[in-house]
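Standup notes, structure subgroup. Blocker cleared on the zinc ion input:
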Amino acid sequence: MSETQPAFKLIRAARVIDGTGSPALERGAVLLEGDRIRAVGSEESIAAPEGAPVEEFNYENKTVIPGLVDCHVHLIGMGDGRAGDELTTLPDEVLTLQAARNARTHLFSGVTTVRDCGAKNQTTFRLRQAMEMGITPGPRMVLAGRPVAIVGGHLSYFGVQATGPDECRAAVRQLIKEGADYIKITATGGSTRTSFALRPSFTVEELKAICDEVHKFGKHAAAHCASSQGMSNVLEAGIDTIIHAVHREPDGTSKFRPEIAERIARQGVFVNATLGGGRNRVVTLEKKMQAEGLSEQEQEELDQMRRAHQQRLDDFAKMRELGVQMAAGSDSAWGKYKMGGFQHETDSHVAGGMTPMEAIVAATADSARSCWVQDSVGTLEAGKQADLVVVDGDPSQDIGALWDVADVFLAGDRVDRGNFV
Ligand SMILES: [Zn+2]
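Run returned:
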């Protein structure tokens, strides 16, 4: 016999952090009605309507925060170190199954919204179809489908290579027809073997055509930039998010260009710095060093990774000093960075100078703003989707508490995470 679920859920916790940057509310409560947040406030001030059935949750010594928003994932990635050039040789069916596994893992780790920054063919669109049918669980998804690349450019093997403003506009229209929520551009080369990471890819004229076309549809664009000229070009074209934001010259030298950072801030463009992958690698190698020691080659890799990660942290701090807004995005499961570890990005933001509360905002409200979904998710406010995470301890004091997820609520439902730890 099935009984109807109570429409209301009352969640009480030692503290509630709403994601806006306001101080943690001690002994707070959140009232959910169906898939929405009905009210947020102190324990005494929040109650279900008189006589209404209500399911209660009491979390001692725990904190309720908004569901995390990871503005940069690659759902089809394996995170086992294989290059994208190899990943793309796998059949679409295998990649779609991997995407389903990654979506589930990320949800269980506390991420309730992701922006996918590029997949092969129709794989992520098919995953969304399966999720809407209830076949497999996962976070809310903001999808690019295939990234827009030049011939031989970064991620061009995923299926779109465009030349000239007309083909660029056509690519945008085709992706939106297939269900893209935004457009991902690779504005410089990257790890793709036939691309040039230190050089721009599209011309400014082509980038303008892409940005203009996507804005015409009321949607946004995010651009991969592995070197400085790419950032200048996309800023000229009217981009909404800059990904990676690596301050590097065509000869490979690192050089922070304050005029670029100032322009990013002036135009209100978000930066997704993707620091978590480097931190993940450093932490993994340091653990191995302590447990069993490192080979000479691994020690070299660790030294090199530490230097590179520190450089990125320094540039991150300089950009923030000049007023750049940061949105947290992991870039997992690219390279060796498996999904389920978005918290490496929030840890890195604190290592780069943010307070823990600023890092929480960058991983919730600001990340949602950068994905253009702030009207429905990113903060705990009446009327928004009931996406919440419960963590042990107080992440506004110690950002590491975000790793200790006790429960996840998606659209008002407590997610059954099985024996996930
Ligand atoms: Zn990426």
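Discussed briefly. Residues 72, 74, 117, 331, 334 surround zinc ion (CB under 6 Å).
Next: hand off to the docking folks.
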